[in-house]
Specification:
- By secondary structure, this protein is of the alpha+beta class.
- It is about 20% helix and about 25% strand.
- β1 and β2 form a beta hairpin.
Length: about 140
């Protein structure tokens, strides 16, 4: 039971997250949640909860946010390697160069090593004779 997880619902019955059994018991003691579903076992004076519901509604703007901020660090984290040679990503390259109106967007940026970034220079990948190993796209949010 130590590694059991409990589903936490918002006051409006929307699923929010999973928490450990220990955290769930603390929420019950603090009276910020009530048990919606429990198993037959007991943990001290409390039945072991399967599902908790918060007493007060919690606004979760981040869960409904459609676009995430595109930064150079986020692009390097998304790709994890040079988009041209597969080497160590040290910088970010704009597929359509900034000098030609290309912006830092999820679809126009790829992580790159210094060598490939200099080789491509102020050209598009096709003009430089380079192929992309990754398809740049906005990363998807996946709840825990």
């Amino acid at each position: 039971m130590a590694d059991a997880y409990v589903l936490v619902l918002n006051a409006s019955y929307e699923p929010l997250q999973r928490v450990s059994l220990r955290h769930a018991i603390k929420m019950l003691v603090r009276e910020v949640a009530v048990i919606e579903e429990a198993s037959d076992a007991h943990f001290g004076p409390f039945p072991v909860p399967k599902v908790l519901r918060l007493v007060r509604y919690v606004v979760m703007r981040w869960a409904h946010q459609r676009t995430r901020l595109c930064t150079k660090a986020a692009v390097k984290l998304r790709d994890g390697m040079c988009g041209y040679c597969g080497g160590h990503a040290e910088t970010v390259d704009h597929i359509l160069p900034r000098s030609r109106g290309g912006a830092l967007t999820w679809e126009n940026a790829v992580a790159a090593c210094i060598k490939c970034n200099h080789r491509k220079a102020d050209r598009t990948p096709s003009e430089a004779g380079m192929t992309l190993l990754v398809t740049p796209a906005e990363p998807r949010y996946s709840p825990a």
